[in-house]
Write a structure and sequence with these properties.
The protein is of the alpha+beta class. Helix content is about 25%, strand content about 25%. The chain contains twelve helices and 19 strands. It is globular.
Length: about 450
């Protein structure tokens, strides 16, 4: 271990050292990560040295930026937890419309420098998420119906392989590995930096509409009909929400159950107001924040947590958004239902995810029309038990609406990788991983089976 410390400018913290608890902590506080060593890398050179040390000492390496997916990481015995959060540098080239982003950066680190040039990256609903895990897992956000997976818009990856050597991976230099890294999970190498495409978006029409949960059935019916005809520039999600009775919650929402439609339209406010008229016609919402906002502000529309929190989530793709699917949502968390979930939602997919105009890489073509996502905060062992039971109920209720491809890799669940891909794509990814990392040196937050 002393030799590793001498080789790094960053830190090596062993189990039992002061600071080990803080070093092993992930964003999702339900994760109890217990690696023998944590490396806080300062540079790509630190990662090279860590990989070489791991190989020489029979250890594995688990790269992690924010730790949003940490609770699905699995056993970290005989594994170095490699924290890349210090590799957070971002540089924007406005002429090329690209951003070079370190593996430890959050999307919030990209939003501000890109916005200076009227540009945005294809971030998710929250900018507090790490770029690396999101992009390597595909990445679905506010602009995905218009532009597709975030992973479909990577120009290059800077990587370190099992030999501990750095390489730049582009479509022309290593098409096999480049394809696998574009949404395949990133398992066969460690990515230290990304060159991402940026998109012009100076303004958007976005925000939320909220009604009392008692209006959920009529709101769901209107939303279900509405999403069938909206243009690809519109992305929305409908949520059944339970707000806690806490001072940190807005007084008009504190302790209440609501049905909400959150949406973003990459267009003018005038056209946006025309598009949402059918939703506003359902009834006067208690909350209406729809307005023209800056492209940078799009990252804050969802209002998702930005600080580390103990939470459990469940996600599954659904082939169609119809009456049966929305009825299942009501049965899971509608009016009068006692549920531990703080939020249960269906996100509208389709558009460029279903009909990509560029090569989507391993992320492929996504036929599913919607994504169910349920989440709850864990406050005690008893609450965790109730949440697990509710997750099983969600799985059972929506199983009839889910195809062979039932999930995506960017959610915090340790589920078989194959469920996120078509069978031939999963086979191809697995073959590349076996070829590039035959001994399983690198650990990811999804299983190979």
């Amino acid at each position: 271990m002393d030799s590793l410390r001498r080789a790094l400018t960053g830190e090596v913290i062993a189990q039992g050292d002061a600071g080990w608890d803080a070093a092993r902590q992930a964003w999702n506080l339900t994760a109890d990560q217990s690696p023998p060593l944590v490396v806080l890398a300062d540079s790509a050179a630190d990662i090279e040295a860590t990989v070489q040390f791991a190989v020489a000492n029979g250890l594995r390496v688990a790269p992690q930026s924010t730790g949003h997916g940490a609770s699905s990481m699995g056993d970290l015995a005989a594994t170095i937890l490699l924290k890349t959060s210090r590799l957070a540098a971002v540089s924007v080239d406005p002429k090329q419309r690209t951003a070079t982003v370190g593996a430890g950066a959050l999307w919030s680190d990209v939003v501000a420098p890109a916005a200076k040039h009227g540009l945005v990256g294809l971030h998710g609903l929250s900018a507090a998420v790490g770029v690396a895990g999101y992009v390597l897992g595909g990445g679905i956000g506010w602009l995905s119906r218009r532009d597709g997976f975030a992973s479909s818009h990577v120009r290059a990856f800077e990587t370190i392989g099992v030999d501990g050597k750095a390489d730049r991976i582009e479509a022309g230099s290593d098409p096999e590995l480049f394809w696998a890294l574009c949404g395949g999970g990133g398992r066969p190498v460690i990515v230290t930096s990304f060159e991402l495409e940026l998109f012009e978006l100076r303004e958007a029409f976005a925000g939320a509409l909220m009604w009392p949960i008692e209006e959920a059935e009529s709101v769901l019916a209107a939303w279900r009909e509405w999403v069938a005809s909206v243009p690809h520039e519109v992305t929305s999600t409908i949520r059944l929400l339970r707000f806690p009775a806490l001072p940190t919650v807005a007084e008009n929402l504190r302790g209440r159950a609501m049905v909400a439609v959150l949406l973003a339209f990459a267009g003018t406010g005038e056209r946006g107001a025309e598009l949402v008229a059918p939703l506003r016609a359902v009834g006067v919402p208690d909350v209406d924040t729809l307005a023209t906002i800056s492209g940078a502000a799009l990252a804050d529309v969802a209002g998702d947590p930005t600080d580390p929190t103990p939470a459990l989530g469940y996600a599954t793709l659904i082939d169609h958004i119809g009456t049966d699917e929305t009825d299942a949502l009501l049965a899971l968390a509608g009016p009068g239902v006692d549920t531990p979930f703080a939020s249960v939602e269906i996100r509208h997919l389709g558009g460029a995810l279903r009909d990509p105009t560029t090569d989507p890489g391993a992320a492929g073509r996504l036929d599913a029309e919607g994504l169910l996502y349920c989440t709850a905060r864990v406050s005690s062992p008893q609450s965790e038990e109730a949440i697990r039971a509710a997750q099983r109920e969600a799985r059972d209720r929506f199983a009839p609406f889910t195809g062979a491809r039932d999930t995506i890799l960017t959610f915090d669940e340790r589920r078989p990788m194959r469920g996120a891909f078509e069978p031939d794509v999963a086979d191809r990814i697995e073959a590349i991983c076996r070829k590039r990392d035959p001994d399983g040196l690198f650990v990811s937050n999804h299983t190979a089976g």
